[in-house]
Specification:
Elements lengths: L4 E5 L7 H10 L3 E5 L5 H14 L5 E4 L5 E2 L8 E2 L4 E5 L10 E2 L5 H4 L5 E4 L4 E9 L2 E6 L3 E2 L5 E3 L12 H12 L4 E4 L5 H10 L6 E6 L2 H5 L1 H7 L2 E5 H7 L5 H14 L4 E4 L14 H13 L3 E4 L1 H4 L4 H18 L2
Parallel strand pairs: 1-2, 1-17, 2-3, 3-13, 6-7, 13-14, 14-15, 15-16, 16-17
Antiparallel strand pairs: 4-12, 5-11, 6-10, 8-9, 8-12, 9-10
């Protein structure tokens, strides 16, 4: 039996009975819902759909935590290098003139010449000025800023030990809807996990702590000790720390999880090319293979199965790779 588990994110392309069954048959072990996208009503319907069609498949709900994101936009602005995009902490802008973000005090935390990253680091900007609630950002290259995409400002303290009202709402939602796991973002201390465990004390839900910034790396051992499992979010981790060291960080986290006998998930862009293409790159095959060889418990698909054009094939490719690698591990 295959040891490595495959987590597939359920989204608009896959929240449908026959597609869910095909994902399972292709090798999906755990269904993930990303709380940062869609509404709680949508997620509630998705949970019912999964439970009805795949009653034995566990559900992981990723809680939208302290990550800064763009709001849902009417217009997703395209820009050229050196164009200026205005991010704003005022909440009523939807991309036509300014792009609203969900962090209501970010304008107070940034200064001229600070760097801002978006969409897992694929977009980068330099702050040119702050005017009231508006953050003027000069694009370092051409691109498009889309709805609900992550915004990273590595030096900004987002309040690592505080539980927001939104986090509590989503945690309670996960408990009420009998999810099996909750993924907690930007974990930097065991104290933060203990606060969440206190909220979950009357349930059997398991806590998956995401290590995705320097604080998480610095307190890695104590976080792993008190969490039920770990997720390595390589997207945020590479932006918040140093992309040149991401492979070393991944190996270090996996080794510590093996030492402490905790399951570990490797996530982000494992088959990113398959969002648009029916086959993987050689680098992606090597990436998945090396994660399994190093001792990962789970490998995860995000956009590949949530919004990608080849969700079933993405799971099948990942499953085929994992079977081949496991068969040949001594």
């Amino acid at each position: 039996m295959k040891k490595i588990k495959i987590i597939a994110t359920i989204g608009p392309k896959t929240a449908e009975p026959s597609t869910l069954v095909r994902l399972f048959n292709a090798g999906m072990s755990i269904a993930r819902l990303n709380g940062a996208h869609n509404t709680l009503d949508w997620h509630k319907r998705a949970i019912k759909l999964i439970n009805k069609n795949l009653p034995n498949v566990p559900i992981l709900i990723d809680i939208p935590g302290k990550k800064i994101r763009t709001k849902s936009l009417i217009k997703e602005p395209k820009f050229k290098k050196d164009d200026v995009i205005i991010l704003t902490t005022e909440q009523n802008y939807r991309g036509t003139k300014k792009v609203a973000i969900n962090h209501k005090s970010l304008h107070q935390l940034l200064s001229k010449n600070d760097r801002v990253f978006a969409d897992d680091g694929s977009l980068s900007f330099v702050v040119t000025k702050i005017n009231a609630n508006d953050i003027y950002c000069r694009a370092e290259h051409a691109g498009q800023l889309k709805s609900t995409k992550g915004i990273n400002v590595p030096h900004v303290d987002l309040g690592s030990d505080k539980l927001s009202k939104k986090e509590k709402t989503y945690i309670n939602f996960a408990i009420e809807n009998k999810a099996n796991f909750i993924g907690i973002s930007f974990v930097e201390s065991e104290k933060y996990i203990k606060k969440i465990r206190n909220l979950c004390k009357n349930s059997n839900i398991k806590i998956i702590a995401k290590i995705e910034n320097q604080g998480g790396l610095d307190n890695m051992q104590s976080i792993i000790e008190v969490a039920d499992g770990i997720m390595i979010d390589r997207g945020d981790l590479s932006i918040e720390t140093n992309i040149d060291s991401i492979a070393l960080f991944q190996k270090k986290i996996i080794n510590k999880c093996l030492e402490l006998a905790k399951p570990v998930i490797v996530a982000t862009e494992m088959l990113d090319s398959m969002i648009y293409k029916p086959f993987p790159t050689k680098a992606e095959v090597l990436d998945i293979s090396n994660a399994i060889i190093d001792g990962a418990s789970c490998v995860m698909l995000s956009g590949e199965t949530a919004v990608g054009n080849y969700p079933i094939n993405s799971v099948k490719v990942m499953n085929d790779i994992s079977l081949k690698v496991e068969k040949n591990i001594k």
